[in-house]
Amino acid sequence: MTNCKKRILYSLVFFTLALFSLAGCASAPTRGGSGPEVANGVIYINSSEGHVFALTPQNRKDKATFPATGEWVFPSVEGRLGFMYGPPVIDGANLYFGTFDGKVYALDASTGQKLWDATFSKQEGIAGSPAVNKQSLFVAAGRNVYALDKLTGKKLWPNPFQAEDRIWSNIVLSGDTLYFGSMDHRVYAVNIGTGQLRWPPFETQGAIASTPLIVGDTLFIGSFDKGFYAIDTATGKPRWPAPFQGESWFWERAIEYKGRIYVGNMDGKVYALDAKSGKTVWSSPFEAPSAIRSAPVVVDGVLIIASTNGQIYGLDAETGKMQWPVQYTVGGEVVADMAVADNMVYVHAQDNVLYGLEAATGRPLLTFPVKYTPKK
């Protein structure tokens, strides 16, 4: 491992340990900011300074004065929200997100008007994104999972589901089951109607901060024990004879493309695995100079990855070889997921800037400072 990669990895380890120490406290980490979410031609993003933005790509390409037509920011007056780490979730006309100080918000996605909010204790910080279906919103707050009426925010289950430790990943809803990992080393499957377990928790040897990937009847997830697992969603039993082993933590969500699973590791490597067997399919993994904390994306066979030092790469998904003419470097670390829409990839870096790159070439097409100062 290179010295540069070691320094970045150690800084992320320090940050994680700091989060662990804060897990039982009312105070929150000193920084937020989520990856973008794109829906109906609008980019939604949570800033590190406590605002939610709705942006339209053409206005941002044209560098129109913000907010232009179709854009908004919440809150638009004095005041900021708590830190936000998971991206907002768009469901029809509404937008939902949680904050690390234990609040859930529902906004009108077209105007940014608040519809309702629900408050948990400050010890129940929300680190991930909620999941939603036709009637309900499911949110992990601290180590608890709640079912809320998505129109009112009222609690639906008599009691929340309780894990043994905090839940940092996004909750994934598939059919009538919620799937998520916990810092208690377990993967859970919970019935959405009752809040009860579907099967005994799947045990790993390390904390789990990554978001599950569901492909058909298989759940893929990584752990801080350096293992990457395939689990039968119906039974909770392992699909592979043994987990795939990386050289460091698996922190981020994997993606699937044409029967392959692509996943980044804190060792700076991106692995391509056969979904059925868990065996590597590239001759060697792609190696970035720093850790991978952002989930990769694929656009027309181009696998796009971001390393924590701010370098963005476009690879041939078939071979793992560089396909862009050159990598693109943003102005800050990248620790949040990217998003794609209309052959563009959007990156929210720790310099508080949203970057829009042409997916086929890596050519930058827009930049927007994700900052807001209300007019007095």
Ordered list of secondary-structure elements with their pairings:
Blueprint: H1 3-22, E1 37-39, E2 42-46, E3 52-55, H2 57-61, E4 72-74, E5 89-91, E6 94-99, E7 103-108, E8 114-119, E9 131-132, E10 136-141, E11 144-149, E12 161-162, E13 172-174, E14 177-181, E15 186-191, E16 202-203, E17 213-215, E18 218-222, E19 227-232, E20 244-245, E21 255-257, E22 260-264, E23 269-274, E24 286-287, E25 297-299, E26 302-306, E27 311-316, E28 328-329, E29 339-341, E30 344-348, E31 353-358, E32 364-369
Antiparallel strand pairs: 1-2, 2-3, 3-4, 5-6, 6-7, 7-8, 9-10, 10-11, 11-12, 13-14, 14-15, 15-16, 17-18, 18-19, 19-20, 21-22, 22-23, 23-24, 25-26, 26-27, 27-28, 29-30, 30-31, 31-32
Q: What this model shows, in words?
A:
The chain is mostly beta strands. It has two helices and 32 strands. The chain has a four-stranded antiparallel beta sheet with strand order 1-2-3-4. The longest helix has 20 residues. The protein is globular and about 60 Å long. It starts with a helix and ends in a 7-residue tail after the last strand.
